[in-house]
Design brief:
Layout (H helix, E strand, L loop, with lengths): L36 H16 L5 H14 L15 E4 L5 E4 L21 H6 L3 H5 L2 H10 L3 H8 L2 H15 L5 H4 L3 H11 L1 H4 L27 H4 L7 H6 L7 H20 L3
Helix pairs in contact: 7-13, 9-13
The structure holds iron/sulfur cluster (SF4) (2 copies).
One iron/sulfur cluster binds next to loops.
Length: about 280
């Protein structure tokens, strides 16, 4: 992204937040057959190695994409969501995901090569996901302060309804809005938030096999989430429904659903208790 703060929705930048934490979800980072941390790290590392040896001319950069596509499994949970082969690792120590074609990228000499991407350079430079537009600024700032690794950050970040519900339920328990300045140095609260974000990878209440850990967050309804049939299970819609849905919840019966809801409620109380 190349915009200044006044052009960023809500004034809180989420795409690159520190030397080691960034997102790459809209470049399709998690839209791979194996979205584990281990596999994504290896895949990004390999691309970055190859890109280092690639001359920055049109033919070589185009050939780079073809080589990567031939090397990697092209099966995707969301086949119509483009996964960009030019997403690699950036930073001095290659410790966060980022665009290898960006003008500030290593050896790119301020030349913007993103015109080679599937959606074109303008889209790459100006797109903001629904979370950027829709999540209240205080939640975005808190998220930035809490998150401790790029993998979970990008995986959880696009779940704006889930995050809004989570922070909103904490606020309801507290009886007031969360204040960034009051949590920015509260490591116990931050650990609690991270435990919640980690549910994206550890949530047990899912239909197996589960291949939708990443989120399809575009608003064209191409891949709607499976809804939970609460009526059939025997209850009304719980307040944490957006969280359950974003985690891909599937429960066989009411006992299992109660456990799932209790799990979420415990996490919300856990975070609120750190602020009492
Ligand atoms: S998904 Fe959102 S936060 Fe992540 S890089 Fe794209 S626009 Fe930025
Ligand atoms: S070229 Fe565009 S889509 Fe590809 S990694 Fe760069 S910013 Fe993302």
């Amino acid at each position: 992204m190349d915009l200044d703060e006044t052009q960023i929705p809500g004034g809180v930048y989420l795409c690159q937040i520190s030397d080691s934490i960034s997102c790459g979800a809209c470049c399709g980072l998690y839209n791979v057959a194996d979205p584990s941390h281990e596999n994504l790290s290896a895949l990004l590392e390999n691309r970055t190695d190859l890109f280092d040896q690639t001359p920055r001319d049109f033919d070589s950069l185009s050939a780079f994409a073809l080589t990567i596509e031939n090397q990697e499994n092209q099966e995707r949970p969301y086949p119509e969501f483009h996964h960009c082969p030019y997403l690699g690792l950036v930073g001095n120590n290659r410790n966060r995901p980022g665009c290898l074609l960006h003008p500030l990228g290593k050896n790119n000499k301020n030349t913007d090569h993103r015109g080679l991407s599937h959606w074109g350079g303008f889209a790459c430079a100006s797109y903001f996901c629904p979370t950027c537009h829709e999540l209240p600024a205080r939640y975005k700032k808190i998220l930035r302060a809490c998150v401790d690794n790029w993998y979970i950050f990008g995986l959880a970040l696009t779940e704006n309804r889930c995050l809004g519900t989570y922070f909103g339920m904490i606020e309801k328990l507290l009886g007031h809005e969360l204040v960034f300045e009051e949590v920015q140095n509260n490591t116990v609260f931050q650990e609690s938030v991270n435990r919640f974000l980690n549910l994206k990878t550890t949530w047990p209440y899912r239909k197996k096999p589960f291949n939708r850990m990443g989120n399809y967050f575009f608003k064209d309804d191409l891949y709607p989430r499976e809804t939970i049939d609460y009526e059939q299970l025997g209850c009304t819609i719980p307040p944490c429904d957006p969280i359950l849905q974003s985690l891909g919840t599937w429960c066989r019966d009411m006992t299992e659903l109660n456990h799932a809801i209790q799990n979420i409620d415990d996490m919300i109380h856990d975070a609120a208790n750190t602020l009492d």
